[in-house]
Here is the input.
Amino acid sequence: MTYILSGKSESARLDAQAEIPQFSLRRELEGIDLRPGTRVLDAGCGSGILCRYLEEHYRGLAIYGCDLSRPSLAHARSVSGVSTFFHHDFIGTPLPGAYDFIFNRLVAHHLTADLLLKGFKNFFGSLSSGGEVVVIDPDGLLLNIGTLDPHLREQIGQVSRAFSGDLQVARAIPQLLTQAGFQNVSWRIDVMDFQGEARQLEVAQWKERFENSIEFYVGIFGTELEARRFFRRYLDEASRADVSMFYNKFIVRGTRP
Here is the structure.
């Protein structure tokens, strides 16, 4: 698994992103019943945002988070209350322990469908009977900008082709969960529409996303100068009020029989 976003400021960016209404944890967790004593894992916990939310809004949970990024885990531990964090690759290795609920949030698009299926099978193997998985991911990140600029559209295509994950894999998550053995698979789609102040906040997020993955873009465009020209072209278009920007956020649930 490769996560192209890195750097000391990435944890702070993720914390700021969680404050944008389109990334609302309250909305994402609507209808999810987590009772005291439930063992919950956030697989791919990053800076621990979901774990902290669970600490603050639910009582009596046993909360765990795992991630590949040691700096992110260090940040999560430093700001967490009672959650337990550990380093783990949930794609390549079965998860230690048993859980009643597994969350996988804003991770799927960094993976291909084949890798996701491996991860979902590992989730299945670590869930108790009747346990649930919830996978949350935006479909169309970076891609869903309504620009008419042909050069920018071509460059976005270059980025998409070079990306090791799949920016539209969210739409396949229901079928992948079924293939992994889950039953009662259901989903809802929230449209993340960015206009007005929300657009300004998302453009600011893109500035930081680009900075925190500069080496990836240099690899595509050849030099830092050309990478930054792409950044500027994308941000200029994204800042225009007449250019649409949206993602379809899939919130998918499945049960282990």
